[in-house]
Amino acid sequence: MSDEFEGSTFGALMETEKQKREEKTQDTKISNKQDTKISNDVEDNIDDIRKVVKQVGRETSPLRITPHENDLLEDFVYSFKKQGIRTDKTQIIRIALNYILNDHAEQGEDSILTAVLERLNA
């Protein structure tokens, strides 16, 4: 991981993702059949989101974010740019939005969206 992100929330997120990838490769308890099912589900979800985000958004929606959230988005855009991947804050927000909406459509009451909203309203 780059020193520029060390100690930041972005750096912590990147480190967590790295640990998850390492744990996944070390986990040999999942059978090949189960592993294929998980991979296919993830690939389907990624492809569904890609198709939606590829469409040009024509609707505008005011969105207020904190300075910290804005900094994180800019860090992600910059990090992807260094890897040769073009993106912008809007595209990242649309990917996240579609991910959480797909999760809610599939999981319903067990979705991340429902859990967070319940805690916000507790």
What this model shows, in words?
Among the domains are: 49 residues, no CATH class; 35 residues, no CATH class. It contains 5 helices and no strands. The protein has 122 residues and is mostly helical. Helix 2 packs across helix 4. The chain is globular. It starts with 8 loop residues before the first helix and ends with a helix. The model has no long low-confidence stretch (mean pLDDT 81).
The count of β-strands is 0
Output the structural class: mainly alpha
Summarize the main sheet. none
List low-confidence stretches: none
Query: Helix segment count?
Result: 5
Shape: globular
Rg, Å, rounded: 17 Å
Kindly estimate the percentage of residues that lie in beta strands according to DSSP: under 5%
Order of helices and strands: HHHHH
Mean of all residue-level pLDDT scores: 81
| Range of helix content | 55-70%
Cα-to-Cα separation, first versus last residue: 38 Å
